[in-house]
Every structure is written in structure tokens, then in C-alpha cells.
């Protein structure tokens, strides 16, 4: 055993058994070859690397953070020691979240691909049964490369069924390796039909038709909600950066006017400059930093909202958040450039 594999093995054995069991379920549903304990060990090691990177980033930027927090009146100060500690904790959590979400997206992607081809697979199985094949032979002959993960799992269970295990027992294990409610219900319904001696081909054809209608209804629902998704995208990518840019440039303009009118007397300033006579408590640079924080938060919320509307799962929308944040930053910079040019003329 290679040294790195031996290290991972020893590290994985130190993890709680309940945690390893849950990881085994998720890894199996994701279609990975490694076991859950090994995946956990790899995740912990990579998260530690994220923690080291986070500690380094905050170590070299603690002075900037202190300057940024001063206008907020926050008494907490980032020393070099606290920067390393906070950066390590944040880096570890970010790395852990990133790797866990990657596994979650893999599971959901596998589920979606299986559910898309499941109706066609059932029709093919039903056709083979009507041609005189047994259920075992019909499933085995229906595996096609275009069915992807579903064909791989069916091929695996049919191979196991050639041994001591019955076809019904190993077929029920397919739903345990693919996280799909439609697949689980279809397998359970099929096994009940086999035990009761029903018309299996007709049942499979009816199930395929029902699944296809359900998929069409979901597509229609997603199509009807695209307007809300477009609206959220417009607010996030166009409206919010524009409002942030207006705020920053307005404060910059007021600051420049106050600087130019500094020679005015207090009485003259109060009559000619009006509200411009008072000193601003915030600076344009501070407001710009706040804008970046707000844009980041809006990107997260917009991604979650899109996930709920589009697919009914908030976490699936988080994958859109980085792109939304990048586009909003670009729109913010372009808006500031345009506004600065307009106000300088």
C-alpha cells in the first residue's frame, strides 16, 4: 500500500463510525469508487490546506481589515495572531463546505440523468418482456451506453444475480446507490408486480408514461417560473450594482465639493452649500467596501432563490452565486466608470 494511501487509511479509521456510515451512503449515491471513510479523510486533509491558505490571506491583510472596520466602530482588532486563527477557521469551513457541496452536486447530477432516461429504459425493458424474455434477461439486455449510470448499476446487479443472490434482492439495491424517489418507487412497484404475478410489461409501460407526464409537468412549471428567475437576475446583475454605484459616486461627489469649498466661512457655507456644510462620517472607499459585501450577500440569496424556483432545492442554486457575483462586480465597475464620467463633465 502506498504511503499516502496508508496515511489516509489510518486517518479514516479514527473517525466516528456513524460519520463513516453516512459518508458511505453519500459516496455510494455519488457513484464514487472509494469508500466513505477515505473520502472523509481526503476532505479533512484538503480542508486543512484551505485553512492554511486562509490563515495566510488574513495574516497579510489584517491591517486592511482593521482600517475597513474602523468606520463601523468595531472594537475588535485583527492582530497577527488573531488573523491566523480566524483565517484558519474560515478557510477550513470554506473548504469543507466546498467539498461537501461538490459531492452533493454530483449526487444530484447523477439523479437527474437517471430520471431523464428512466422512462425510455422502462419502455425498452417492457418491449423485451413482450418479446418473450424473462425479467432478468430483459433488464440485462436493456442496458445501453446512453443510459449512463442507470445501465452501469443494472449491469452490476445482474452480474450479482448470477451468483447466490436473487434478482429481486439485488435490484432493490439499485435505488440505494442512486438517490432518486422515482427510481425507488419504480423498483418497489416492479418487485410487487413480480411477486403478485401481474402483467409486468403493461405495468412498466404505464409507469414509463406516468414518469414522462411528470417530467413534462415539471418542465412546464419551470418554464412558467422563468419570469421570476429573469427578474431576480436583473435585480442582482443590473439594478443592485447600479444603485451601489450611485451611492458611492454620490458620496465621492459630496466629498470633492466639500474639499473645494473648504475655504468658505461657516456662515457662507451654511447659506450657499446648505447640507454640504456638514462633514460626512463615511468615506467613498468604506462605502465601496460595503457595496462589495452587499453584492456578495445578494449573490448568495439570489442563487438560493433561483434554486428554489427552478428545481425546488436551495443548495442547487448556490452554484450560480459565483457567476452572479462576478457579473455584478463587473456591472458595478462599469456603472461607476460611466457615472464618474458623467459627473465630471
Automatic annotation (TrEMBL):
The chain crosses the membrane at residues 39-62, 82-105, 228-248, 290-310, 322-343. The lineage of its organism: Archaea, Candidatus Iainarchaeota, Candidatus Iainarchaeia, Candidatus Iainarchaeales, Candidatus Iainarchaeaceae. It comes from the Archaea. Residues 121-245 form the Type II secretion system protein GspF domain. It comes from Candidatus Iainarchaeum sp. GO terms for cellular component: plasma membrane. PANTHER family: INTEGRAL MEMBRANE PROTEIN-RELATED, TYPE II SECRETION SYSTEM PROTEIN GSPF DOMAIN-CONTAINING PROTEIN. The keyword Transmembrane applies. It is found in: Cell membrane. InterPro entries: ArlJ-like, T2SS_GspF_dom. Keywords: Cell membrane, Membrane, Transmembrane, Transmembrane helix. This is Type II secretion system F family protein. The keyword Cell membrane applies. Signal peptide: none annotated. It is a multi-pass membrane protein.
